[in-house]
Amino acid sequence: MSIRVTSLFPLPQEKVTNTLEYYEKILDQAAPLRARHREEVHYAIRDLSKMLTGDRASLPKDYMGDPRTFNAYLRFFLPWNLYRLTRLFQGMDFDLPNDGVIIDLGAGPLTVAQALWIAKPNLREKRLTFINVDRSPKPMREGQKLFEALAPKSPWKMVNVKGGPSSKVREKANLLITANMVNEASSGMRTPLPLWANKFSQQISRMLAPKGKILIIEPGIRRSGRVLSLLRNEFIEKGLSILAPCPHHEECPMSGEQGKSWCHFNFDSTHAPEWLQKLAKKCRMEKDNVSMSFLYVGQADAPTPVPEENSMLIRTVSESFRIDDGGFGQYGCAAEGLILLLAKGEARSIFPGGLVGIPTPEKLEEDLKSGAKIVELPTRAIHKGANAKPSDPKSDHKSKSDRDSKPVERSGSRPDSRKSHSPKDASDSWTNSKKSNSPKDTSDSWTSSKKESYKKNKPPRK
Predict the structure, then answer these.
(1) In this structure, is residue 378 part of a structural domain?
(2) pLDDT at position 62, please?
(3) Is 254 a domain residue?
(4) What SS3 string covers the chain?
(5) Could you tell me which of 440, 172, 178 has the C-alpha nearest to residue 297?
(6) Confidence (pLDDT) at 443
(7) Torsion angles phi and psi, residue 316, rounded to 5
(8) Looking at residue 60, what is its pLDDT?
(9) In a domain, 393, yes or no
């Protein structure tokens, strides 16, 4: 018995890693810091972090209008967002036409445009127009300087619009993206969340071209998962198709409501720029991993994942954890509901975000603790594990030190911003984690490297 696996979060290509490593110089070039600001930027970063992780309702709508706060965002939060978005964008197929339009709601310092340039070299020769919408013009102006320093000969056109989701934009979007905006926009409102989701989904659906798609990306916290689950329901009711991460249109088993777990994906920060990791350490904000929740939506006729006959599709969500009787467990999502994947013997668990096509078991037993349906992963003989390189994501349950022994070679030289780079096959990735999978509401991840591995089939934290 064989299975098919594709991955949402492939490891960064070498050129992507080099560009992110070089990005510190781009910041120095396009947004130089005065000596006084440079000396205390790590304090400003910590202050902004407290603001962003506290009560979002009390967060000023124009918090990036303050120079100290904005410099902290550019130097720390923007590069981390670029790392997160490039990991996601590499694994996605954006079929954009020449002269296509991308609307970026809550554009900030044009993070989406920069991440697309870094992660999708196949789009660099296309004439694309970005309609960047934000309530504060300053971040967009500064972001345009950064984009021009990153891609000085780009054919992409930037149009900055002051406004919000309800702003009237004449152009229709082939791709509408909103990153780290929905959670803020829906916080502190008197309108009940389901009613807000209904209104917001209507607003952005009207901004699409006939074949247009919507991509919503948020931090991997419980509230984000809840908001995206409500938006998912609204899009389905409106007849749109859910392209990812959901492999089905049935009820969401990870909605984040009434103590349920929420849908979010975690991946390690090993391949983040070294300068950024050093800055995080100086700020005492080291990251073992980063995570996100997201929703990718298409029109009714957009192709969606379909299981083969007598098979089921499972999207792996949590990282793997040890189970009592040997092997590893991992939670996933399928049309059948919450799934507990078991990898025993020579079987291997999957990186979070993997889409698994597997023959449907004759009988689906339920895990007594989580209520998840149990599916055992077969030995995957279709993979050449014996020939996998040490740095290859196909390697099985290695320790962190083993799998990081040969990192991507980094370079301080300026990356080529024009030449296309064909990505390597990022499918069939194995998970390497042996960490706990109990998230906190204030955490980004299913896992924490400072905790021991689970010894029982414990469900995602409620």
Answers:
(1) no
(2) 67
(3) yes
(4) CCCEEECCCCCCCHHHHHHHHHHHHHHHHHCCCCHHHHHCHHHHHHHHHHHHHCCHHHCCCCHHHCHHHHHHHHHHHHHHHHHHHHHHHHCCCCCCCCCCEEEEECCCCCHHHHHHHHHCHHHCCCCCEEEEEECCHHHHHHHHHHHHHHCCCCCCEEEEEECCCCCCCCCCEEEEEEECCHHHHCCCCCCCHHHHHHHHHHHHHCCEEEEEEEEEEEECCHHHHHHHHHHHHHHHHCCCEEEECCCCCCCCCCECCCCCCECCEEEECCCCCHHHHHHHHHCCCCCCEEEEEEEEEECCCCCCCCCCCCEEEEEECCCCEECCCCCEEEEEEECCEEEEEEECCCCCCECCCCEEEEECCCCCCECCCCCCEEEEECCCCCCCHHHCCCCCCCCCCCCHHHHCCCCCCCCCCCCCCCCCCCCCCCCCCECCCCCCCCCCCCCCCCCCCCCCCCCCCCCCCC
(5) 178
(6) 37
(7) -70, 140
(8) 65
(9) no
Output the CA angle 362-310-341, nearest 5 degrees: 60
Contact call for residues 139 and 70 (beta carbons, < 8 A): yes
Query: Is the separation of the CB atoms in 336 and 307 below 8 Å?
Result: no
**How many residues in the chain?**
462
CA end-to-end distance (rounded Å), the chain: 34
Main-chain phi, psi angles of 458, to 5 degrees: -85, 135
Asked if the structure places residue 368 within a domain, the reply is: no
Rounded Cα gap, residues 386 and 394, in angstroms: 10
Nearest to 219 by CA among 350, 405, 88, 403: 88
pTM of the model: 0.81
pLDDT of amino acid 124: 96
Spatial distance between the Cα atoms of 262 and 461, rounded to a whole number of angstroms: 9
Averaged pLDDT, 368-385: 71
Helices 193-205 and 222-237, axial angle in degrees (round to 10) = 60
Question: Which residue, 33, 67, 27, 72, is CA-closest to 52?
Answer: 72
Boundaries of domain holding 234: 8-298
CATH classification of the domain holding 119: 3.40.50.150
Residue 7: pLDDT above 60?
Answer: yes
Q: Which burial class, exposed, middle or buried, applies to 267 when counting CB atoms under 10 A from its CB (0-12, 13-18, 19+)? A: buried
- Tokens representing 297? 């939506």
Residue 23 is predicted with a pLDDT of 97
**Inter-residue contact 423 to 308 (CB < 8 Å):** no
User: How many domains, in total, are found in the chain?
Assistant: 1
Q: Which residues on adjacent β-strands are paired with residue 132?
A: 104, 160
Do β-strands 289-298 and 4-6 pair in parallel, antiparallel, or remain unpaired? unpaired
